[in-house]
Amino acid sequence: MSEFDKIVTQEQAYLRLVHPTPEETPTCFNLFDTYLSCNAARSQVKSYYRFGQGTQCGTKLEDWKFCLGLKSLEPEQRQEAWIRRRAEWWAQRRLGKSSEDVWEMRAEPVPGFPKPPSEGDIKKFEFVPGNFVD
Question: Which domain of life does the UniProt lineage start with (predicted)?
């Protein structure tokens, strides 16, 4: 079994927990709404600010088209097809480049962080009646 297939299997198991019934998977209307909001002015301005280019909404359009193609299936079949597609998308993201390619994830916290409060720190925050700032 390839690494991609292992990740797809993991993602499918997770998505089945998150979306246990067909009613909890996104509808075509929800996916179309997501596509429209991706093209909205607010999303475009935020994308230009963060990345210097407009949002890339092609995948959201493809998700909507995929959903329209599932309309003739039974709800359980539709849910399985959607979970498979979403799991493959997540698997591609996990195998692609990410911040983990630059930074290594810590297995344990940094020793001594956060620093435990000292006696002086605690006294700074003690409540003393009559010491109010007006």
Answer: Eukaryota
pLDDT of residue 7: 92
Q: What is the mean pLDDT of residues 62-88?
A: 94
Sequence-ordered list of residues with C-beta below 8 angstroms from that of 12, at least 6 positions apart, any chain:
83, 84, 87
Helices 28-38, 58-69: axis angle to 10 degrees equals: 160
* 120 is a domain residue: no
Residue 101 maps to a domain: no
Q: How many domains does the chain have?
A: 1
Q: Closest by alpha carbon to 57, among 68, 67, 44?
A: 44
Task: Note the pLDDT of residue 100.
Answer: 60
Rounded CA separation 57/61 (Å): 6
Report the distance separating Cα 79 and Cα 24, nearest Å: 9
Contact status, residue 82 vs residue 24, Cβ threshold 8 Å: no
Rounded Cα distance, 26 and 21, in Å: 11
